[in-house]
Design brief:
The structure is a single chain. Helices cover 65% and strands 3% of the residues. The protein is mostly helical. The protein has a five-stranded parallel β-sheet with strand order 2-3-4-1-5, sandwiched between helices. Helix 17 (361-371) packs across helix 18 (379-392), helix 30 runs antiparallel to helix 32 and helix 39 runs antiparallel to helix 40 (793-809). The longest helix has 18 residues, at 231-248. The relative contact order is 0.04. The model is unreliable at 1-5 and 844-861 (pLDDT under 50). It comes from Streptomyces gardneri.
């Protein structure tokens, strides 16, 4: 298809034709950037001239023609012969001049003598008097000097008769051409026409020929923005879209499709532009920014030259409004024909210059990645800072590539020890499956001498996390703290190991504790979090540790520096039985990890959320989150911590009666090193619960007792971490040995801090099952009440089931049925179907009742008629407490309780406790 017609430009061509036909000489010089359609305009000229039967002598100058004297004039003569003109009068003249040109020593020498110039001009006039004609010269910029002089001579004489000249040019700083052009434009009959890109309406017209009016209307804005209306680039985009239809099916959407045709068109424009424009375009492509002063320093050219090049690139349509090369496809095309070595050199030079200019580390690092790290002391520290900035901006791919490059470029173990843990952390955050690739660096590091600096501690933590305990033990034994910071890091490592992998403590060097003093800001969150964890793990849950954990969670933004502290603080809340706060913070951290596309963080917080869901009795959520965690990271990527999601998933499947699924979880290979960690004990406890649920009592008992023995040897025997004693007591109850069950439960109760907590509640539940008479009644009531407040609905259901059995044994069948009904409904809502069936046998299959994670209980609006005091009494009565127990809890008389209940029955239109709405028992606003 020809150039889209432009009314103004075509009008100029018609004017030239009219003037030539009238015998008036005229000259039109068409200027414009590469690809703007100058050659297409000459085609339109020939078409219009053919309609009027006006001959057009066409010449096209090529880049090599400027070195061929009279080359353009020779082309002109051949074109004249093709149109039937008699050239015999001047052919010999031009041949002789061409032979003389071969002997010239200077381009300034004229191969045409003055008389020969006159004869040649007279011949042109004689031809035009018989038949007016046009001379069309394309790319006049490339014409040789002798031909330019002749053309200028013709233009300087107004008696040229019916000869019309239409010549196109491109930008050029060639000295001889600049003089010629200035003289040419001084002629009164010479008109200069600038051919710019098509306007938006022209782009719509162009596209309509290919896609129709409607599609052209939709696509025109994007196509115009990309090309600036440059016809060559527009045509290339249409070719690429057509190619995409034939190779990969119909190209969807209206955005441009960038392919080989577009890349070649961009290169054509750049190679056909003024000298130096291509080099400037390449620098703009490398820099991905518009900074003429920077380009000037990099190229060694003048500011004026760079500005001219940028103006030409803008005229072509390759620059955005901010002066940058618009599309990535344009930047890639500008560098496409550059050898790889030269492209690398551009990036290296850019990195060095940007560093000298004080550019940000992230920008310099991006160039170092391609250009290679120069042999300069600033390179590796800058790469590290650039990676940190990329991580801060959540550009995980960039951070990983920068760190990997920095590690490859490091030359000693001190650098590697500092960089390797960052690389592992970045790979875990971005894609946990890539951590094995990063861990291969440790072999290189461990084979040499470890530097005596605190970065080695981070390396050791990585080794421990990924289960490489022998290497970690060896590295620990080789530590030689040399500063206060090293001593503090060693102290933090000791606390961390004590909570996660106590067997490695014996490998730590015997060093004194660091002197008390201000903690460095970067270590403050981790120090506070580890201190809080140590308090819970060594002394049991306490308010001070919980307050420290909340301080971390409230005051730290999730980042590489705070991730470990936040994870530790969250686990403090879990092991301190603050499930409501743990639930809030785990959901918040998990949501942030998802939003920031950090798969590793998402996996860890999902696993923690699964652990919390288990402790809340929310089995469907526990299973969902545990499976999510395991889908994001393979077991080998989890290392020791794989025990956390596997334990939650195993417990969820077991409690739900999904024993086949639980068996599959147990068949999942786990690292042997896991059993030297706290997570291994959590896994062993979950496995024991599975043996217990499936009737393998002796296997379960062995698992629990071994777990307790190991935890005791580690000084990590806290019931809020792993309640192995109550689990073993449940086995003894099943075996009929209530004495041993009671002993274990009492031993666990002695370890639990006074106060209301989930751990204390489940301990009282097991102890109540092993007790008799009034003691059993009191313990059941305390367990039910405490577990209700704790938020663990599954343990609450078990406590209610135990209370129901005790009430039935005491002959209180009404209360027993009411309590069993509540316990069964709660178990169903938790997804604990075997427990629900055990509490209320014969309820039918699992599909007989729709179960959700939220308990749907009848309540009715009449509950709102109760006063606050009546509601408190009714709630405790619905939970199964006797009048005397309620009176003690509320510090009132039994008579007052009876009076309140009488009014409750009347308002709710019921006659007995068993008819009280079950929603009252779940009313968490009543915590008396």
């Amino acid at each position: 298809m020809n150039l889209v017609e432009r009314d103004g430009e075509i009008a100029h061509l018609r004017a030239v034709l009219d003037a030539s036909a009238a015998g008036d000489g005229t000259l039109l010089l068409v200027s414009g950037p590469a690809g703007s359609g100058k050659t297409e305009l000459l085609r339109s000229l020939r078409r219009l001239a053919a309609e009027r039967e006006t001959p057009v002598w066409s010449v096209r100058a090529l880049p090599g023609d400027r070195d061929v004297p009279l080359g353009v004039l020779c082309q002109l003569l051949r074109s004249a012969e093709q149109h039937g003109a008699d050239t015999s009068a001047v052919r010999d003249l031009l041949d002789a001049a061409s032979r003389r040109a071969g002997n010239l020593t200077s381009p300034a020498d004229a191969p045409l003598r003055v008389d020969e110039t006159h004869r040649l001009h007279d011949w042109l006039l004689s031809v035009s008097r018989r038949t007016p004609f046009l001379v069309a010269v394309d790319d006049l910029t490339h014409a040789d000097t002798a031909s330019l002089r002749f053309l200028l001579y013709c233009a300087a004489h107004h008696d040229q008769g019916g000869i019309g000249f239409v010549m196109t040019e491109r930008a050029s700083q060639r000295a001889g051409y600049r003089v010629f052009r200035a003289e040419l434009l001084r002629q009164p009959h010479c008109r200069n026409m600038w051919l710019s890109g098509l306007p938006p309406s022209g782009v719509r017209q162009f596209l309509a020929h290919y896609y129709g009016p409607e599609a052209a209307e939709r696509r025109a804005p994007a196509y115009h923005a990309t090309t600036g209306g440059n016809p060559l680039l527009l045509r290339a985009l249409t070719q690429d879209r057509q190619a995409s239809h034939t190779t990969v099916g119909a190209a969807g959407g209206d955005e441009p499709v960038y392919g080989d045709a577009f890349a070649q068109a961009v290169l054509d424009c750049l190679h056909r532009s003024a000298e130096g424009t291509l080099e400037t375009a390449r620098w703009l492509a490398v820099l991905e920014q518009s900074d003429p002063l920077l380009v000037e320093r990099l190229t060694g050219t003048t500011a004026a030259a760079v500005e001219r090049h940028i103006q030409e690139l803008a005229a072509i349509g390759l620059l955005d409004e901010d002066g940058t090369l618009g599309q990535p496809a344009i930047r890639e095309a500008a560098l496409q024909d550059l050898p790889a070595g030269e492209r690398t050199e551009l990036h290296r030079r850019a990195a060095e210059q940007l560093h000298r200019d004080g550019a940000d580390e992230d920008t310099v690092a991006r160039h170092l990645l391609v250009g290679g790290a120069p042999d300069a002391p600033w390179a590796l520290p800058l790469l590290e800072r650039g990676a940190q900035q990329a991580l801060f901006d959540d550009r995980l791919d960039d951070a990983f590539r920068i760190l990997e490059f920095a590690v490859r470029s490091s030359t000693d173990n001190t650098q590697l020890a500092r960089l390797a843990p960052h690389l592992v952390a970045a790979s875990w955050r971005m894609n946990p499956h890539m951590t094995t690739r990063a861990l291969a660096l440790f072999d290189r590091l461990l084979s040499g001498e470890l530097p005596p600096s605190h970065p080695v501690m981070a390396l050791i933590r990585c080794l421990v996390w990924y289960g490489r305990l022998p290497e970690a033990a060896d590295a620990l034994s080789r530590l030689r703290p040399s500063s206060d910071n090293d001593a503090l890091e060693l102290s933090l490592t000791r606390m961390w190991l004590a909570a996660l992998c106590p067997p490695l403590l014996e490998s730590l060097p015997a060093t004194p504790e660091p002197e008390r003093g201000p903690v460095p800001v970067r270590l403050a969150p981790r120090t506070t979090a580890l201190q809080a964890q140590a308090g819970v793990f060594q002394r049991g849950p306490d308010n001070a540790s919980v307050a420290q954990a909340e301080q971390i969670l409230q005051g730290c933004r999730l980042s590489e520096e705070t991730y470990e502290a936040l994870e530790t603080a969250l686990l403090v809340l879990v092991h301190a039985d603050r499930l409501d706060r743990a639930l809030f913070w785990s959901d918040a951290l998990l949501a942030e990890a998802v939003e920031r596309r950090s798969l590793g963080w998402e996996a860890v917080f999902a696993a923690t959320r699964a652990m919390i869901a288990i402790r809340c009795g929310d089995l469907p959520t526990a299973r969902e989150r545990a499976e999510l965690a395991l889908s994001h990271a393979a077991p080998e990527s989890w290392g020791l911590a794989v025990g956390m999601p596997l334990s939650a998933l195993l417990l969820a499947c077991t409690e739900a009666g999904e024993y086949e699924q639980a068996e599959r979880v147990l068949r999942q290979p786990v690292p042997d090193a896991m059993f030297d960690s706290r997570h291994g004990m959590e896994y062993m406890h979950a496995r024991g619960r599975y043996w217990l649920a499936t009737g393998r009592l002796h296997a379960a008992l062995g698992e629990f007792m071994l777990c307790g023995e190991i935890l005791g040897s580690w000084n990590l025997d806290q019931p809020s971490i792993v309640p192995w004693r109550t689990s073993a007591a449940e086995v003894y109850l099943r075996l009929g040995n209530r004495q041993k069950a009671r002993a274990l439960a009492e031993a666990q109760l002695a370890l639990v801090r006074p106060g209301r907590s989930r751990t204390r509640g489940l301990t009282l539940r097991v102890l109540a099952a092993a007790a008799d008479g009034q003691q059993a009644e009191r313990l059941h009531a305390e367990a039910v009440d405490m577990l209700h407040d704790s938020g663990d609905r599954l343990e609450h259901a078990r406590a209610l089931a135990g209370m129901s059995r005790h009430q039935q044994a005491q002959g209180d069948n009404y209360r027993a049925r009411m309590t069993a009904r509540l316990a069964g409904d709660m178990a169903w809502a938790c997804g604990a179907y075997p427990l629900a069936e055990e509490i209320v046998p014969g309820r039918g299959g699992r599909r007989a009742k729709a179960v959700s994670t939220e308990l749907e209980l009848p309540g009715g609006p009449d509950v709102g008629l109760l006063s606050e005091a009546e509601r408190r009494v009714a709630a405790l009565a619905a939970r199964g407490l006797t009048n005397r127990q309620i009176a003690r809890r509320l510090c009132v008389t039994a008579s007052t309780v009876e009076q309140h209940l009488t009014r409750v029955y009347r308002k709710l239109n019921v006659t007995r406790r068993a008819d009280l709405p079950i929603s009252l028992a779940q009313d968490k606003s009543v915590t008396a």
